[in-house]
Amino acid sequence: MQEKEKIKGPLGIIAGGGQLPCVVAEAAEARGLPLHIVGIRGEASPAIERFPHTWIKWGEFGKLFGALNDNACRDLVIIGGVTRPDPSNIRLDLGALKNLPFLLTLGKGGDDHVLSNVVRFFEKKGYRVHGAGDVVPELLVEEGVLGKIAPSAADRADIELAFTVVDALGRLDVGQAAVVIKGYVVAVEAAEGTDAMLDRCAALRVSGRTRGQGRTGVLVKMPKPGQEERVDLPTIGPETIKKASAAGLAGVAVAAGRVLMAERGATIEAANQNGLFLFGQDLTAESDR
Asked: Quick one: which of 130, 158, 196, 280 could link to 134 by a disulfide (CB 3.0–4.6 Å)?
């Protein structure tokens, strides 16, 4: 495994949606790291404005690099959800026109291809790209049982199968999650995302296809094989737990050290209150085989 580069100077945070950009910024401030957030309009939360920041529109590459360079940010964290922009909402500045060949690659291929290109693009510009876990290690789900409930032997069997399914489909750049109930693959994540997949599972239970089985089955999340984990780690939070509960599942299992947990305390408490297990599985041995 390649040794991680140390964060050496002011940290630039390129912010998409959700609360994680602010969580990373708070941790950087606590470490005494100067920082500057570049927020993408229509994606990033207004909450970033309590930190030094610059707003940009999609395509304003000149403004992006200007903000990073003016604040001496050579270390970067790219964090938060984004959607592929509508071409009508893109504003191309001179910096974008200079990088037009790169921009044209963003409309092609799956997420892994796009995100790997994004990282290489910034690295070629001389930036050092880090994962959120390099700044906030406590965001990463640790190994073992979290909360009050442990998975049963039957749950463990479902967990193993679900990890196998996600690994296989992930090699095709399909998704990062699957639901398995009593050895039956009920759902796999595609472009709709984990929440929508869990909504489908809840609908199946209501329709009777999985009704009467009690609280059973598991949601598993893990990165795809070969995924660029510095910019696209799977994430779980309280809403994930609530939707897993609504789907009648017994719990949630993720790849330890390779999945982010937003609102750690609230997520564990949601699992306890809803009677679900929350489990981090070490997949290192499997990946080394």
From this structure: 130
pLDDT single digits (tens) 92-121? 667 666 766 666 565 555 555 567 778 888
Q: Cα 42 to chain center, whole Å?
A: 19
Q: Which of 3-12, 145-154, 228-237, 248-257 has the lowest mean pLDDT?
A: 3-12
The model's pTM: 0.82
What domains can you pick out in the chain, each with its CATH number?
11-135 (3.40.50.20), 140-288 (3.40.140.80)
Q: How many CB atoms lie within 10 A of CB 87?
A: 9
Both tokens of 42, joined, read 């229509």
Residues paired with residue 251 on neighbouring β-strands, in sequence order? 218, 277
Q: Is 129 helix (H, G, I), strand (E, B) or coil?
A: strand
